[in-house]
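Box 3.1 A note on notation
Throughout this textbook, protein chains are presented in two layers. The first layer is the amino acid sequence; the second is a token string describing backbone geometry. Keep the layers aligned when reading.
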Amino acid sequence: MNLITLQVKTSEDFQKNLEHLKSLILQCEENSIILAPEIVLSGFCYARMEEASQFSIKAIEEIKELAINKTIALTFITKKDDKFYNTLYVFHNQEILHTQSKVKLFPLGNELEHFEAGKEEDIKILDINGLKVATLICFELRFPQLWEKVKGADIILNPAMWGLKRKDHYETISKSLALVNQCFVIASNSADDNMAKGSAIISPFGNMLKDDDKEIIKVNANLSEIKKVRKYINIGLDENE
């Protein structure tokens, strides 16, 4: 299984962002789980929220078509009942497998003024070809109660737009998530100039592959490492299996 994180810049041109993202996805091998940064197609474009939500409708259909023998995850600005959400979509076999909207909105980024919070019950562990996969979106990493929602996952995704001033926080918390849950973590952060980068694939034993200069970071993961680590240091994660 290839675990892939994308680390890209977001421009003001939504269509250009979509075309670039699609080109990166097409470069990724089959049998991959691919994660892109938080709202990579639009950024936090508060003056263009309506435009972004309409563009998302088109982009969702185009990204879905690329999910052939690949699982693709990213967030979009969406609109429902005149409210805007930061919504994760997981695409698999050219279908929308799962959606969840960001529950914990980042107050320092004015998200509370522009987005509606999602529902905590939508944070759940998915079955993807026998793998347990879950997602926490950016700032949600900081909330221990949400770690309980993804406990037992084999792979945890974290799409982010995490600021440069807190780069060490992002990398430390992402690695801690992998160690505490004895699982793989795919961390995908923006490469914008004011963002922390730090995108990485982190193993259940805490080994981290990252490169702030690359747009595509890939690990051909040996998924048996999950059970090996959980058996080696048994903290009860497999007791209910």
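The radius of gyration is 17 Å. The chain has a mean pLDDT of 96.
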